[in-house]
């Protein structure tokens, strides 16, 4: 009843398309739940996503849940998670993504989930790390534990928009630090991020943890640019 009154006063809207939600809907409207572009988590290799990683390092899987396009609904969705404090939305999408992972591939080969660490200063400014919210959701669905601490972002990376992938990769080489290698040694680590464009950030972290002793590395982006 109270929720109904609140909804009349402040109608809740869909995080992707901004349409007013029905009482039975939560966070996303039914249409967006059905229509948001999802390419499938396990694509036969090589594919457009694996090509972003192939040849740079040895890894097992590269997944993305949503396809991202300029000005599209997925971009709007990711903007809410990243800049508008929609942490619950991040967790919800992570739970959804994790449930899809369970359908595709069970038992999971991944032993630890590593959300891309955010620089301490940026975490203080934003108040949360959106990759961590998504990872929490995936962990809830899959029961794969999240790696807490031990891997840090020691540099606030500069704007990378005008650099090509090789330059980005070079800039990112010393961005991450494995402070405690013992927690990843011998493990298959699934690196999770909110959005993926070139894949340079994920690769930089992947190489870092591989060098520090991770047995295998896989990648999962909630949304990726094709
Ligand atoms: Zn919608």
UniProtKB/TrEMBL annotation:
One Pfam family here: Pribosyltran
Family recorded in the similarity comment: Belongs to the ComF/GntX family.
Organism listed in the record: Aquirufa beregesia
InterPro entries found in the cross-reference section: ComF/GntX_DNA_util-trans, PRTase-like, PRTase_dom
Residues annotated as domain Phosphoribosyltransferase: 171-223
Protein name: ComF family protein
């Amino acid at each position: 009843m109270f929720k109904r009154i609140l909804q009349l006063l402040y109608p809740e809207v869909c995080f992707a398309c901004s349409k007013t939600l029905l009482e039975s809907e939560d966070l996303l409207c039914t249409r967006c739940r059905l229509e948001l572009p999802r390419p499938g988590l396990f694509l036969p290799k090589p594919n457009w996503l694996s090509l972003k990683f192939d040849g740079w390092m040895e890894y097992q899987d590269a997944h993305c849940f949503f396809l991202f396009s300029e000005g599209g609904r997925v971009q709007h969705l990711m903007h809410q998670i990243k800049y508008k404090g929609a942490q619950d939305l991040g967790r919800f999408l992570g739970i959804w993504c994790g449930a899809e992972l369970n359908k595709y591939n069970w038992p999971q080969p991944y032993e630890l989930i590593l959300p891309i660490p955010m620089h301490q200063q940026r975490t203080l400014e934003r108040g949360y790390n959106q990759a961590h919210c998504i990872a929490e959701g995936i962990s809830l669905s899959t029961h794969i534990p999240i790696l807490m601490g031990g891997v840090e972002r020691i540099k606030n990376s500069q704007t990378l928009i005008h650099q090509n992938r090789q330059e980005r990769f070079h800039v990112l080489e010393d961005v991450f630090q494995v402070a405690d290698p013992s927690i990843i040694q011998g493990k298959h680590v699934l690196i999770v991020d909110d959005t993926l464009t070139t894949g340079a950030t994920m690769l930089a972290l992947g190489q870092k943890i591989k060098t520090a002793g991770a047995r295998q590395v896989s990648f999962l982006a909630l949304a990726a640019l094709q």
